[in-house]
Structure formats: C-alpha cells, structure tokens
Write a structure and sequence with these properties.
mainly alpha; five-stranded mixed sheet
Length: 516
C-alpha cells in the first residue's frame, strides 16, 4: 500500500467516523477534567498496593488491574490523575465501539451515533470510568466480545475466532465476571442456530486460547487454596445487599438512566422478535442469562452494566427505523436533545462534578436514591462518593500519633489497619509522612503477610478497644478520626497506641484473615 493510499484510507476512516470519534473524545475529556479535581477512591488505593506486589492472582481479582497500576506508575508516575487515564481511554473506546457495533448490526448513521450517545450518557458508565478499577476494562471486554460475535455471525473467520479467544482470556484476567458472559454465550449457542459452531474446531480453539491465557490465574488460585471462592461466598452472604428481582430490575433502569430505558429495552426485544435481530439473538441470551444468575446469586446491580452497550446498539436501530417510517426527521435531533438533557441532569449523580455541599442539596432535590449494593448504614453521601473522602486526613491523624513516639519506638512500631482501604491509604499517603507500610488481614493484604515487626508497640486503627485488649496488655486511645462525608462505618474511629502484645503479630496472623 502506497503512502498516498494510506493517507486516503485514514481520511476516509476519519470522515466516516467523525461523529463517533467526537463523542469518544467528549467522553475522554469529561473524565480527564473530573479526574484533575477529584480525590482518591477506596479501591484505587488497594489496586496501587496490588501493583507493588505483582502476582498471577489476588484474593478478590485477577492480575490485569494490578499490572495496569504498575505500568501506569512505571511510565508516568503514581498520581491518581495519571492512574485514571487508562480508565478514561477505556471508556472513550467503549463509546466508539458501541457505534461501530450498531453499524455491524445494520444501523445507518443516526443509529450509530445514537448508540454511541447512549453509551456516553449512561450514568453507570460515567461513574465507572471516573476512577481506576476493573470495571472500566470489564465493560470494554464484554463489548469487544459482543462485537466479535456479531462479526462471526456475519462472516465466520478463523482469525476472528482467534481474536475472540484472546479477548475472552484477557477479559478473564481482568475480572472473572466475564464468566457470566461466557455462560450466557453457551446458553445462546445452544438455543440458536449458532449451535452449528459446536461442530467446528474454531470455537474450541478459541476456548483453548482463553483457557491458556487464564491458566496462570487458575494455578495461582489452586496454590493459594482457592481464596476467591471464599471471598465470593462471604461477599454474597454478608456484604452484598439482598435485592428482590423487582429491586434488581429497577436498579438497572436507574443505572442505565430512565430516559435510556426505552432504547435498551427495544434492543433486547429486537434480538428476540425482529426478523433481522433474531440472527444475533445470542446477544440477547447473554443479557438474560447473566441477569438471571446475578438475581439468583445476590450479585451487585452494576455487575450487569457491561451488557447495555450491545442493547443500546440494537435499540438504536429500532428508533432509527421508526423515525424513518414516520418520515419525521425532526424527531432525531429532538430525541438526542432530550437524552442529552437527561444525561446532564443525572451526571452529578454519577461523577463528583459538584462541590460536596451543593451535591448534597442537589441530591435532596432530585430525590433519587442510589441503588443499594452493600449492607452498610449510609451517610450524607452515597457510598460511591463517600468512599472518596477522608483517606489523606486519616493518614495524617495516624502520622501525628506516630511522630509523637520516640525514635526507637518508631523503628519498632507496626501500624495495624482493619480493611484494605485504610491500609492502602496508609501505604499511599504515608510514604511522604515517613510511615511504615500497614499490616492488615483483609483480602490480599493477608497474603502479603505480617511483616517483621513483633507488634510490641503498635498503632491500631479500625478496631474497637475490646478487640485491641484481646491482643495487647496496654491500650491507650491516642486520637479520634472524624470526617463529615465518609461512610458511617469509617467515621469516629479511635486511633489506639498499643503496647506489650500478648503474642507476636506473626503468631496471631492466621486469626486475622478476612476475605470479603
């Protein structure tokens, strides 16, 4: 291909996809703007810590997110703004590919742009892509899988099967919830004419590729006693909120935006009842199967979020064809205007774009309660926002206690934290304050061990006095951490200075394991 031909190809690509690319860039710049002024989220502190302990697995997630954290730190530093760039780019790619998927399903220009606009405006995607987490990449892997499946239905190709296997394998190394995509795919294949794939070698080769990519994590699980199974069981039984089927479905309408509900519902119906849509019906079965499992197994409502991209793509076709049949072209800009207005109204509920005091008043005026996901008492902020507050202040309070110790006591002092958010904050903010890394039995912190300090002198945070007195002979409350916006279970926490441990931390360590 000559240089002139390449230039023409790029020019045609840009011309063909100008609006989709514009929406993707809007998505990117929105998150970059928010990230520049936002504070750190609880899980981000944990992922940063995981990135400093690279392995093929962790108690509560596969290795992809830790590797991304390590690469981000190695390439650009460890600021939260830099860390979140990858999530912002993943969200922008999701918007663009959603439009491409609508094109492959048969949508013309308006359907493509409408599908991408839905992916841009959906509150769940605005929220997920506003911080660094597995979820930003999970929704992209689901979408790539759906896109490749549509291509395979239209034109079976060995190369596409290989790409599909690679996407599934990498997606599993990011988050095992992609197994539910695979489960739904299996159901869809069995219940549609695509069952013919089972008689061909390529689908099995794709499965083999995915398995080989995922195998290191399986081996890590086996070598470490299958900790993720214990984590999932405990979270389902004791942490996740129990929702009725109606509550779960209602939460889906809120997460994807009530204004977008007619579009994704139309997309789901298109897969099952439209003559052209039935060709791609297995995507509908993926949604139905995954939703059923999440309802039965007490999954969090946002677990189903990745599936809405392909429902938006299909639903956009219905609205495009309906408007064309009515021969009322003004309905297209009118529809987009209504959706944009609704998206702007809900955006402050998805991203921290308002000052906190203004957001609290806005939330009261709107009167829409965020879907309940965990069994915790709520504070003045929804948990998704509250988990961004207090970490630096908590670490500063602990450092003040630490710096009051003598030099010898500081050398021997261990800092014990109750959960990974607290431990991650101490590790992240505490370096500049001269604090040692935290010791914690929560999730993967347990596997990283107790360190080499005996605990004869320790600063203990997150535990009650009664808990401390079980292990130490001298327990003194040295400070109290309070913050107006944190979750209630993280508020009004005493900071204990404990001495004369009854057994060493190393001897007590097996009792500290806390997978949830």
């Amino acid at each position: 291909m000559t240089a002139e031909t390449k230039t023409l190809s790029w020019a045609n690509f840009l011309r063909e996809n100008a609006f989709l690319l514009s929406l993707a860039l809007i998505k990117l710049f929105v998150h970059i703007g928010v990230n520049a002024r936002d504070s750190v989220f609880r899980d981000e502190l944990y992922y940063i810590a995981c990135g400093k302990h690279l392995a093929f697995g962790y108690v509560d997630h596969p290795p992809f997110i830790a590797l991304m954290a390590a690469l981000s730190r190695w390439l650009l530093g460890d600021s939260i703004f830099v860390l979140r760039l990858s999530a912002a780019f993943a969200g922008a790619a999701m918007v663009f590919i959603t439009g491409l998927l609508a094109r492959e399903l048969g949508g013309k220009r308006f359907a493509q742009n409408l599908a991408a606009l839905c992916a841009l405006l959906a509150p769940i995607y605005l929220g997920i892509d506003s911080y660094f987490s597995m979820n930003a990449f999970d929704q992209l892997f689901w979408l790539l899988g759906a896109y490749l499946l549509v291509l395979l239905i239209k034109r079976e190709s060995r190369g596409l099967w290989l790409a599909f296997g690679a996407v599934m394998g990498l997606g599993l190394m990011n988050k095992i919830s992609l197994l539910f995509f695979g489960f739904g795919l299996s159901i869809g294949i069995l219940l549609t004419p695509n069952r013919r794939w089972l008689l061909q070698p390529w689908i099995w080769l794709a499965g083999g590729i995915a398995f080989l990519i995922f195998l290191p994590h399986i081996l890590w699980q086996a070598l470490n006693g299958w900790p993720t199974l214990e984590f999932i069981h405990n979270a389902s039984q004791y942490k996740n909120a129990s929702l009725s089927p109606w509550e779960f479905i209602k939460s889906q309408i809120l997460l994807a935006h009530p204004f977008l509900f007619p579009i994704w519902l139309a997309g789901l119906l298109w897969f099952f009842f439209n003559r052209e849509g039935k060709r791609f019906r297995l995507l509908g079965w993926i949604y139905i199967s995954a939703m059923t499992v999440f309802i039965l197994k007490n999954g969090k409502p946002y677990y189903l979020a990745p599936a809405y991209t392909f429902l938006f793509a299909a639903g956009a076709l219905i609205f495009e064809s309906g408007i064309d049949i009515l021969r009322q072209p003004w309905l297209k800009p009118a529809l987009c205007t209504v959706l944009i207005a609704g998206g702007a109204l809900s955006a402050p509920m998805a991203m921290p774009i308002l000052p906190t005091d203004i957001f609290i008043r806005f939330n009261q005026i709107i009167g829409v309660e965020s879907p309940r996901e965990e069994n915790h008492e709520m504070g003045v902020l929804p948990q998704f926002f509250a988990d961004r507050y207090g970490w630096r202040e908590m670490t500063l309070a602990i450092s003040e206690v630490y710096n009051q110790l003598s030099p010898e006591d500081r050398r021997n002092c261990a800092i014990l934290a109750e959960n990974y958010g607290q431990a991650g904050a101490i590790d992240y903010f505490g370096r500049a304050l001269g604090l040692p890394n935290a010791v914690c039995g929560h999730n993967n912190y347990f596997l990283w061990g107790p360190g080499d300090k005996s605990g004869d002198i320790a600063i203990v945070y997150g535990f009650s006095r009664e808990d401390c007195e079980k292990s130490f002979e001298i327990v003194e409350q040295a400070a109290l951490f309070t913050h107006p916006y944190v979750m209630p279970f993280e508020n009004n926490k005493p900071i204990f200075l404990c001495r004369k441990i009854k057994k060493t931390i190393q001897e007590l360590w097996p009792q500290t394991k806390h997978y949830i």
